[in-house]
Each structure stands twice: as C-alpha cells, then as structure tokens.
Amino acid sequence: MAACLFPLSQALRSYHGEEACTSFVDYAQLDAFTSEAFRGNPAAVCLLPIARSVEWMQIVAAEFSAPMTAFLVKRSKTKDTAGNGQVVMDVNSFVGEMSNPHTNSEEKASEFDVRFFTPTAEVDLCGHATLASAYLMFKSGLAPGPHVFFHTLKATLKVNMVMGSDGNNEWQDQVELCLPFMDATPISIDMDSIFPQTLQRCQVMSSHKSAWDRVILELPSATEVETLKPCFEEINACRFRGGLIVTGKGSSGSPFDFVSRYFAPQFGIPEDPVCGTAHCSLAPLWAAKLGKQKLLAYQASQRGGVLELSVDNDAKCVLLRGAAVIVTAGVLLS
Questions:
Q1: Mean pLDDT by 10 residues, the chain (334 residues)
Q2: Given 74, 111, 188, 303, which residue has the most CB atoms within 10 angstroms?
Q3: Structural domains in the chain?
C-alpha cells in the first residue's frame, strides 16, 4: 500500500538509489474528522527519514499552509551507543520502508516521534493532525495496526483502529485517540466588552477559561453558534491568547448533542475547521450538562466535521473517534 500512496517517491528512489534519496520527504495531505474529501480539517503529514530542524519544519508548514502540519520520525527500539537503554530514532526508517513496508516488526513500525506546526508556530498537541497521521500510517501499512503510538513534546498518545463489532473484525476506516481532559474553569467577565463586534449583544449563557488560555462561551442555541460573525481583529487582540470557542446545545431533532466553532487568529488560523483538543474541554462540559458520557458533536465551520466522543471521568480523558480521507500525496525534494 505504501508504494501505491507514494509512486513518485518509489520512482525517484528506483532511479537514484536509496542512498542518494535520504533527504527526500514523503508527505500526504488528509482531511480529518470526515469521510468526504474537502471537508473536515486538513492536515499535512510529513514522513521524515531523518530529524530536521525546527526552522525547516516551520518553513515547510508555512509552505503547505494547512491548519496543521505533522512531522513524523519512526522510532527504533534500539539501545543507544552509551548502553543506557534510551529509545533512539531510526535514521532511515521511512526510506527503507517505502521500498518494503513489511520488513520491520510491528513494534518498530508503530512508534513515532511527532511535532506539530501551524503556518506560524509550533504547538504541543493537535488532535486532528494526530488522527490524520494515524489514519495515514494504518492506510499505508507503515503501522500494521491495530494501534500506533505517537511521542509528542508533552505526552505519548495511543491511537487505535476502530474495528467492527458482532464478529466483524474488519477495520471500519476510523481511528480512535485518547486525549487528556483540558479543564475549564467558570469565569465571570463581561464578554460584551471584550467581544462587542463578535457577539453583537448575543446572550452568553456561561463562560469558561480552558487550558491553553482559551475562552469558551456558551450561546443560547446551535443556530446562534452557526450564524455568529466573528471579528478576527478583536479576537486576535483579546486577553485570551488561545482564542475563542463558542458552543451551543444541538437543535431539536438534530443528531448532535452540541455544536461549536473555534477562532484562533493568534496562531494563523482565523477559524479552525475541526479542533480535536477543543473537544477535550467541550466534551466534559457537555457531558456534565446533559448527563451522558457518549456524545456526538459537530464543529460548524464552513468545512464542518463530526466527532464521536466518549468521556471517561475516572481516567480524566476523552476518546475521540473519527474518519479521514487522503487527498494528495507526494515528495518534498529539499
């Protein structure tokens, strides 16, 4: 499957030889939290044969101009030369696996170091780019499944294939990732004075401040969330440097428990199409409000996206389940 996804990469390596192509970087762009192309949240995923500098990764992320670009380097369970048992990166892991994706063991093929970049900044964690990365690894055969581990700057994330039930053990073309709660604390601030043009005197039912300095405003209805006209200049200038999330209860007759939108011009993303980490705060809030642990959410951006959520209060985590679509694949030559 890897050869099918990266035919140009295969042709270049066959022509020039593996040793001459160690600087080539295979990449794919996917749409996450959707089963339709050109919907959901785009993410570029770059498969690095060797670790690259932060400066290079930021330039590439700006070039892709996707909401998020993930850079992956496969880990090898090889002890370092000092013999202290640390995990080190396998320098040519992706290069060799493009030629023969089934040479490495499942253990070696399913652990990756990952860094996330918006067009303007690096971030510690990204839900939709993690989902996209896992989907690409499973679809290409670079991670045989049924799970893959991503080592971020802050945590190790396990992502699972979603398998069928009732004896159907086939992959359902969905993945599930577990992310920690991002606590949201109630705040009492006059939001009309902070976001006068955005809210246009819309009633705010509740206000919370969540992790990463995001503010969450609950509006009276899903309709008011969907029709909100944000003023990006005032959001960019506001005291909450993580941006603004607006949310509301799903409409009567709708399959969705709640809807939301997320604006983050501070990170070069005026409106995030579908944000996984935002739902690490939203899911616990709505689970408590609605008295249910399993939720279906819709992020009402122009592209739109669906998230299946399960809240585990004991483990303090949210399970996010979603699909993805591979839209393009190619190779970076420099």
A1: 64 60 86 97 95 97 96 73 32 34 43 95 95 96 89 93 84 94 93 95 95 96 98 96 97 97 93 97 98 98 97 96 96 87
A2: 74
A3: 2-176+324-332 (3.10.310.10), 184-315 (3.10.310.10)
